[in-house]
# Entry
Amino acid sequence: MSDASGKVICDAGPLIHLDELDSVHLLNDFAEILVPVQVWNEVAFHRPNVFDNPTVTFLKTEVTISPRARFQALIRSLALDTGEQAALTMMQENPDAIFLTDDAAARLAAISLGYQVHGSIGILIRAIRRQQKNKEEVLDILRSIPDRSTLHIRPALLNEVIARVESHTID
Amino acid sequence: MTTKELQTQVVQTEVPVGLLNQAQDLIEAGWFRNLDELFLDALRRFLESHRGELMEEFIRQDVEWGLVGNE
# Structure
């Protein structure tokens, strides 16, 4: 595996979904994993053991949600929850970080603010490129999503994703 | 009758106890009149911001980033 990548700021979805798939350790490829306290509390409520993973260091971070008018208008128009608001506030202070979310509205907000944003599927597939897992291991995880995870993905689209990964040639 | 009545249908679903407790806390605090109103508002907001084509586009972007992204 090559050197650790940059910083990520987490929304609740990827932490929950990756944990459901026994894959939260894939995040240890990032140099810093920042979790706003609002997200931390939400995840701990649904998946109390996520933050006990000994292979991953999560940085629980206090965040005061940005009062800026443009930001407030955006989060209200997209009805973002407090965790998403906190994570996006952290992105304002860390614009080079990657925002991790599986929520379409939060992702839309992040894109409109100019941030790089990805979700659980991206982290899983990235594990091949980063040599954290081989292609077959990742394909097995992708195939198990409907049974093991609350990550919502249309079955036909998941099959398409699997086919795309299967056909990908690793350099 | 000049006003078209809102058609509704009763659905039954299972809700995790933790989420239900959170919902009931909001009702007891006076934010919603009852569970029906809360669930309707939550569902409406979710559907407004989660368009299928948008979610699909994001997944496709993630696949390409995962496979060939440049970090």
